Amino acid sequence: MARAVASGGALSGLAGCTAPGNEALREGGGGREEEGRGGAGPVTLTVLTHYANEPLKSALQGAVDAWNAGAGMGVGVGPGAGGARADADADAETARRRIQVRTTAVAFPDLLTTYMVRQAAGQEPDILHPYCLWTGQLVRAGVLRPAPPEVARQIRRNYSAAAVAGASVDGTLYGYPTEVQTYCLYYNKRLLHAAGIAGPPRTCEELEDAAYRTARRDRHGNTLVQGFGLSRSDDSTVVGQTLALLAARGGRFLTPDGRRTALGSPAGRAVLDLEHRLIERGAADPGVSLFKAFPAGQVAMAINAGWWTASLRNVMGASYREVGVAPVPGRTADDRGTLATGFLMGVNARSKHPQEAWEFLRWLNAAKVPANGSKAGGAVGKPVHGAGRSWQGQSLVTRMSALQVSVGSMTGRADDMRTLLLELAGATSVDPNLRPFLDALHYAAAEPNGPRAQQTKTLLRKNIEEVWTGRTPVDAALRTLSRQVDQELSRPY
What we know:
Low-confidence stretches: 1-38, 72-90, 374-388
Mean pLDDT: 85
Strand content: 5-15%
Largest sheet: 8 strands, mixed
Distance between the termini: 28 Å
Structural class: alpha+beta
Number of helices: 18
Shape: globular
Helix content: 25-40%
């Protein structure tokens, strides 16, 4: 899960390093897809992921170990999997013996650079697990292979619009969305109650008022409680919280075609003005670590993604009961808008075993197993043939959805998430604070992921922080940002 973003420009040395035949690849196009069944010998697939730390590392490895051991091996079966009953039994044992999977994990800040270095050195993995922000860069550099037609149809049918958009470039899908992060408002119930506020704010005006009422300083002017937390820890937090507020007001960072900035709109000015006022009036202090202050009960409200629930629960212990989650406030109480970010699993354009790679990804992301039989790692359940949403009274989910919920995250499959977060909530330890993030899947907007998305995100962060520090007025920062981003987007790749 993204907590920071690797530096831009990691693809600069690969502008001409397009995979052979990739110029002809489109969704389900030819290229090297037919090479996958080139022989009956054993195949070892490699996966390069950012799941280098617990609990993500063990969760994914548990799924891979189950595949390698042949547990629940039917490939492409179950509701929405795009396969038939005949795919399962006889082929399962053959697949188990013929296809094995090996994972390699690197820290997220190193992920993009590692992909590029290995691609240039001819050591590319068969399966990639990139941040969706980089999809356009990876496609332009010839790294990602378009999804086969049946996989693309299945993804469009079963995943939220934001998840599909994040895994697509110019309408072509390049993999299965894995974790999907939507942004909501975290709040401390105790701090709001102490300020005489009955519940979370529903509008931007209520948010600003609550921020001033909950903020506290000592007699020396030192911050005791921030009314609203603004984090400068990395690109994802600085930009994510701002774009979530922007979306809730009906605004967006770039124009729909992705060619120019749109942050100079009234909504964009309103959001930056709000953040600047909160800092100027002492209700927010970006110099204080949000990730330490909020769990310590020193921040009343903050905007962040759903992954934070698991972190807060682990750090805060019994005090976590003070944490609530609500939609990001908009102009009116009925407005709904926020940001969605995520990751995808796709197949390398240079993989010698693309068909086998898609088989494994279908097993992990599409074939369904009983939800209450999916352990952390989500991989050991037996596939269900010819079933709908339930089988013998048991709800069904994909292994990837079960894996994500086991670590406090979500996929973009709203039906799976509803099953895991709501239907099974009484029988499991699923966090009810995840429900607003599930609801947000229906209205969240995907983070722009064009070929220069990383560079423009870095520029956005820089100009937001210029406003936060008071070095640049809002209007001047918006003018600078528009000029810089538009220039970056106009550059030939």
